[in-house]
Amino acid sequence: MRTLDIAPLRRVSHPHSLRRWRWYAHDLYTLALLGIYSALAIIFYVKVEQASFWLLVNVLIAMLIALLVWTDRDSTPRWIRLLHWFYLPPVIYVMYQQVHAYIPVLNPHLYDDLLIAWDYALFGTHPTHWLARFAHPLLTEYLQTTYVLFYFLPIIHATELLRRRRLEEISKLARLMSFGFYASYLAYFALPAIGPRFTLHDFHNLDKELPGLWLTPTWRAHVNAGGGIPEGASRPEAWVHRDCMPSGHTMLTLINIFLAFRFRSCTRWLLLLLGGSLIVATVYLRYHYVVDLIAGALCALIVLWIEPRIYRFLARKGYLSERAYASMES
After folding, report:
1. What pTM does this model have?
2. b/e code 272-288 from CB counts within 10 Å (16+ = b)
3. Angstrom distances, CA of residue 294 to CA of 34, 112, 119, 290, 319
4. Cα-flanking dihedrals φ and ψ of residue 15, to 5°?
């Protein structure tokens, strides 16, 4: 078993790299996905909704990354250097929203029936129906709250690492999480699905069947809006994003928890508690089938295996002007 080496590695010079620019792996991963999205927008320009808008967004994000890379120097103000890591959360969210412009064009079919059949073959019942016996407003309130913490848990982790000046680990967290998010977005193309709250249950009865206490309606409204459902839509299934398989919530939460324990982060037990609850919430709240979670866990393992190898390849080839601190070898 190889161990985690968190010692800083020396700067690499290579004729292909812009040696005066500080490229991190997460910059290149983001630019790569921007390139894929932009190519799809151009190739399917007539069919892609708001293709011109997304192309403009991609250009602006690429320009922002280039500006941050160009200005990131040892003498640069600290807030700019921090922005070179913390631009990721809003950009990742924009990339999530954008992928749903292309999925209906490239793969317009829904595979919920297949996922339902797989769940039933594994468990002999529908897991969301079985979990309904445990429904309680207090439990619903707690799980709905943990579910909306999905994007915030990695930020909590990164903030702790920053406070402790563990910059090598922040860099590794940024590159693995960004790679994982982007990989999950591309995986959605394979088996688009909308989830059991639309197929096995009546979406309009969700508040009656799974009532919370105080915050649940607000959190649900935010999740629905983020998932593409307009307020008051009579046919929400026609609007909702097709992002069930694999479960990105499971995939990225597991990666974050894994890294927290490898780094011995102070927040690791909190992340385990909230992250584990979040994963349970994906089925209890009827957002996902259990097979989505299984696929998400498998994808997490694949990301943890393949990303360090891609990172080392980029470093060897000189596409990174600086080896980004930490390398994980399995």
Report:
1. 0.89
2. eebbebbbbbbbbbbbb
3. 28, 15, 10, 6, 34
4. -60, -20
Identify whether the C-beta of residue 29 lies closer than 8 Å to the C-beta of residue 175.
yes
Tokens 């807030």 found at: 79
Question: Residue 286 gets which letter from DSSP?
Answer: T
Question: Tens of pLDDT along 102-143?
Answer: 999 999 999 999 999 999 999 999 999 999 999 999 999 999
List, in order, residues 6 or more apart from 221 with CB less than 8 Å away: 231
What is the total residue count of the chain?
A: 330
**pLDDT of 169-224, one tens digit each?**
998 999 999 999 999 999 999 999 999 999 999 999 999 999 999 999 999 999 99
Amino acid letter, 101:
A
pLDDT at 5: 39
Helix, coil or strand: residue 143: helix
The one-letter amino acid at 112: D
Rounded CA separation 90/95 (Å): 9
Comparing CA positions, the residue from 283, 295, 108, 292 lying closest to residue 200 is 283
Q: Does a cis peptide bond (omega within 30 degrees of 0) precede residue 154?
A: no
Q: Nearest CA to 208 among 123, 135, 121?
A: 135
Q: Tell the residue number behind the tokens 């250097």, with chain if given.
A: 81
